Amino acid sequence: MYGNQVVFKSRDETGGLLAEKLAALQLINPIVIAIPRGGVVIGCEIARRIGAELDIVTPKKIPAPQNPELAIGAVMHDGSFFLNEEVAAASNASKAYIESAKERVRNESARRLSIYRRERAPPVLRGRTVILTDDGIATGSTMEVAIKWAREQNSERVIVAVPVIPTSILAKLKRYVDSVVYVEATESFFAIGQFYKIFEQVSDEEVIRMLQDYWKNYSKDKKPA
């Protein structure tokens, strides 16, 4: 604890905590969809513990003009798109800028997905319980576009599972998904890293290794140990 704030040891620990909460739900043919990079560490742990299939998506933030750290929305590899109209207007993002940035970011999302998934066929989500996970949510833009994408795949249920989330974003996401599973919801939110003792950068190579190891060992008949 730091004051009244929960501080986790590592992403592995939070994956275990989320898996315990998810195991109490009635999950129909679940698949864990992790957002790289840090979310893959958590996704692997959740999927292993609940015996679920694992895959990824690569939503990317669309930066505001003149302020690359501020997200005005997010886009997926297939063009699924979320725009925070209030933030876009406040940052003077024109329609031309938004369209240009959206296409550039979509291409980057598709490139990153190809690097991580290689030749693996995309998952089938129709009729399944989709568990979207990351190592935390800050603004919510990437998670919102991931939710939209999962809904468009005709998922039976969409669940967001994250260790930490701002209370304002929690209230918003609850309107779009069947359930939000979390460990800590707080108003005192500055950065996801403040909630972890160990919050090292996860490399692309580590993401690829974790995914390949899981995919090699997983089957519906033989779940990973």
Q: Can you characterise this structure?
A:
With 225 residues, this protein is α/β, with parallel strands linked by helices. It has seven helices and eight strands; from the N terminus they run αβαββββααβαβαβα. It has helices spanning 11-23, 38-50, 85-90, 95-117, 141-152, 167-173, 204-217, and strands at residues 30-34, 53-56, 60-64, 67-75, 81-83, 129-133, 157-166, 179-186. The longest helix has 23 residues, at 95-117. The chain is globular, with a radius of gyration of 17 Å.
Radius of gyration: 17 Å
Tell me about the largest β-sheet: 5 strands, parallel
User: How would you sum up the global shape?
Assistant: globular
* C-alpha termini separation: 31 Å
Number of continuous helical runs: 7
Q: How is the CATH topology of the largest domain named?
A: Rossmann fold
In N-to-C order, the SSE pattern is: HEHEEEEHHEHEHEH
CATH architecture of the largest domain: 3-Layer(aba) Sandwich
Q: What strand order characterises the main sheet? A: 2-1-6-7-8
CATH class of the largest domain: Alpha Beta
Helix-and-strand structural type: alpha/beta
Assembly classification: single chain
Instruction: Return the domain count.
Output: 2
Describe the structure in brief:
By secondary structure, the protein is of the alpha/beta class. It has helices spanning 11-23, 38-50, 85-90, 95-117, 141-152, 167-173, 204-217; strands spanning 30-34, 53-56, 60-64, 67-75, 81-83, 129-133, 157-166, 179-186. The protein has a five-stranded parallel sheet with strand order 2-1-6-7-8, sandwiched between helices. The protein has a three-stranded antiparallel sheet with strand order 3-4-5.
